[in-house]
Structure formats: C-alpha cells, structure tokens
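Example record used in the benchmark description.
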Amino acid sequence: MNLKRLSIGDKEAIKVLFTSVFTGEPWNDDWSDGKQLDLYIEDLCGQSYSLTYGLYDDDELIGLSMGYIKHWYTGTEYIINELCIKTDRQGSGAGTFFLAQIEKNIKEMGLKQIFLLTDRDVPAYNFYKKNNYVEVNNLVPFAKQI
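Model output (structure tokens):
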C-alpha cells in the first residue's frame, strides 16, 4: 500500500470511493444530488489550501482523506473533513496504516497537529481512539438550520 497526494484532477475516483463508503451503513448519507457532490468535492480538493491523500493498493484507491491546511497560533494543522477506507477493507489495518502515513507526511511538511470531527456512535470513534487521537472536551460543535 502506498500514500499519494490527490488533487481535483482525481475527482471522479474520489467520488466513487467517497459515495461507496458514506452512502452505506452506518452513515447512510444521501449523495444522490450529483451537482451538490461535485461542489463538495471541489470545496475539499480544489482550493489552494486543500490537502487530499489517497491510499492505494496497487492501482486501486482504497482510502481517502480530504481536508485542508490551517495556520493557527499553535502551529499549522491538517484539518480532516473526510476520511474513509473502502468498506470491504475496513478492519484490515489499512486505516491505521493510512493514518500513520498521513502523520509522517504532514510532519515532514512541518505541520504540528491533525484535527477532525466524528460522531460518537460510529465505528470511526473507536478507530481514532485506538490510534491515539484524543477527544478535545472543551470544544463544542454548534449548528443552526436557517
């Protein structure tokens, strides 16, 4: 398996993996609006500060991390908006390998931290804990429907 930095030029492969994972259990996200999906992928992968990685097994894209670089007072961070492993490869160690490769790569870039959000009631929560990610208890996400 190997890590590759992706760009908006990889959008079609990104969309295939992303929708195959997140439209299924336990997320069940409705990405049937193709225009909305294109805009979302462009938001995450098509900006000057975007940072997107793919995990490949031979020529097959099996992992995806989409986010951006954020300059913060404690140092520059990688904010991960979406991370996934192909459903049939989950539980095989691919995700742990992928995170380790991302961490190595961003450390070489001079970044100091990874920040991400996940739900408590999905398998990703325990996956991140197992990989030594720590809950930031003093942060509270807010949202308002308008």
